[in-house]
Amino acid sequence: MKKSATHRLSDRVLWALGRANMQSQRLVRQHMTQAGIRTQHYHVLASLADDGAGAQATLADRIGLDRSDLVTLLDELEELKFLARQVDPADRRRKIVTITPAGEKQLDSMDQLIYAAEADLLQPLTATERKTLLTLLTRLTGD
């Protein structure tokens, strides 16, 4: 039996979006790994920078990570001085997590790696096509 050169859904938008997403995630991981950075660290730091300080449980929910897995990431980031944890004065059982100036600087560096991954992904497109793609995707997601 001859194998088809294309997938049965290759003419569908959802298939193409899924493949583009997989490629973009691969490129981000590649750029981060080459820089010796864990992509999960990015999610933590970006959430703290964008959404503000929060309790560890709140942070886990915001980034969709299991709470016990988050503790390991927080330990790593705290050791690197990228975040600080302090006891919540309202509830001494909780810890409030905040990004540090060093964490902000690291996040800026990580953003540059993501921009590089995006440039790799979009390399075949012209500037006008890139703008059109972003406009269309933004409309689809309602952002």
TrEMBL record:
UniProt keyword list: DNA-binding
UniProt cross-references to InterPro entries, sorted A to Z: HTH_MarR-typ, MarR/SlyA-like, WH-like_DNA-bd_sf, WH_DNA-bd_sf
GO MF annotation terms: DNA binding; DNA-binding transcription factor activity
Residues spanning the signal sequence: none
SMART domains tied to this protein: HTH_MARR
Domain of life: Bacteria
Residue ranges annotated for the HTH marR-type domain, each copy included: 10-142
GO BP annotations listed: response to stress
PANTHER family the UniProt entry points to: HTH-TYPE TRANSCRIPTIONAL REPRESSOR YETL, TRANSCRIPTIONAL REGULATOR, MARR FAMILY
Protein name: DNA-binding MarR family transcriptional regulator
Species annotation: Kribbella kalugense
